[in-house]
């Protein structure tokens, strides 16, 4: 059984790790474009995701000034609308806020609550401040504190985002555990000296054979056991 010791603070990624982002976006696209079949919805989801990924990369590379997820999601929603000829302004505006209405995985709410009984718990997300506030409320996630990359005008895996979490935790990075369903996210945390735990989800970025994390888990129940053993 994996055990993780000497952790003082636990930090959770949000999108994909605790909430099902792709399914939520699909549902919002289907609501905005009800005539779309599954294949069309998947195509529109890909269009959305590609825009978000490209714009975050442009920001990281210095080709664009920082823009919050509210702005980038608004652009993605407009791209989807333009692609299908959707002109209903209210429908486009609601689609733009789809990322604020994502459902948690079945073990997320209880898992975070159980860990929060033993450790200070932080959420650390690329979602902008307002989006993160509304997303946490919708999903029922209860943190001791939620941090947005917007505070440092950067997106993970930029080191300043993880440094924000470590500075907030107030302890050495080797005593701060980053939990995520994305190996790229954990590599970013690892580069700053943080401890790392991969949680397997149906979506996300699985580890490669060369990744060495402090633990790999099939869900939050296993993580809780690893953190509270002994």
**Estimated share of beta-strand residues:** 5-15%
Q: What global shape is seen?
A: globular
Radius of gyration: 18 Å
Indicate the percent of residues in helices. Answer: 40-55%
Strand order of the largest sheet: 3-2-1-4-5-6
Mean pLDDT across all residues, rounded? 96
The residue ranges in which pLDDT falls below 50 over 5 or more consecutive positions are none
Question: Can you describe what's shown?
Answer:
This protein has 230 residues and is an alpha/beta fold. The chain has helices spanning 21-32, 38-60, 69-84, 89-96, 108-116, 129-139, 159-169, 183-191, 220-228, and strands at residues 9-12, 121-125, 145-148, 176-180, 195-199, 215-217. It has a six-stranded parallel β-sheet, sandwiched between helices. It is globular, with a radius of gyration of 18 Å.
Present the secondary structure layout.
Elements: E1 9-12, H1 21-32, H2 38-60, H3 69-84, H4 89-96, H5 108-116, E2 121-125, H6 129-139, E3 145-148, H7 159-169, E4 176-180, H8 183-191, E5 195-199, E6 215-217, H9 220-228
Parallel strand pairs: 1-2, 1-4, 2-3, 4-5, 5-6
Helix pairs in contact: 1-2, 1-4, 2-3, 3-4, 5-9
Describe the structure concisely.
The protein has nine helices and six strands, in the order βαααααβαβαβαββα.
Characteristics:
six-stranded parallel beta sheet; alpha/beta; 230 residues
């Amino acid at each position: 059984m994996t055990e993780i010791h000497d952790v003082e603070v636990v930090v959770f990624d949000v999108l994909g790790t605790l909430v099902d982002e792709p399914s939520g976006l699909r549902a919002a696209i289907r609501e905005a474009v009800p005539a779309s079949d599954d294949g069309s919805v998947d195509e529109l989801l890909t269009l959305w995701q590609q825009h978000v990924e490209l714009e975050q990369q442009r920001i990281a590379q210095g080709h664009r000034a920082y823009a919050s997820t509210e702005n980038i999601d608004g652009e993605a929603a407009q791209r989807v609308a333009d692609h299908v000829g959707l002109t209903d302004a209210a429908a486009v505006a609601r689609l733009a806020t789809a990322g604020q209405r994502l459902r948690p995985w079945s073990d997320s709410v209880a898992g975070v609550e159980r860990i929060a009984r033993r450790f200070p718990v932080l959420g650390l997300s690329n979602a902008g401040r307002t989006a993160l506030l509304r997303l946490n409320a919708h999903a029922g996630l209860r943190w001791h504190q939620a941090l947005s990359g917007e505070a440092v005008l950067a997106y993970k895996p930029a080191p300043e985002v993880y440094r924000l979490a470590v500075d907030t935790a107030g302890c050495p990075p080797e005593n701060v555990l980053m939990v995520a369903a994305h190996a790229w996210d954990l590599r970013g945390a690892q580069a700053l000296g943080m401890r790392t735990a991969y949680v397997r989800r149906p979506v996300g970025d699985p580890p490669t054979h060369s990744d060495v994390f402090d633990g790999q888990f099939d869900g939050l129940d296993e993580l809780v056991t690893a953190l509270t053993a002994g």
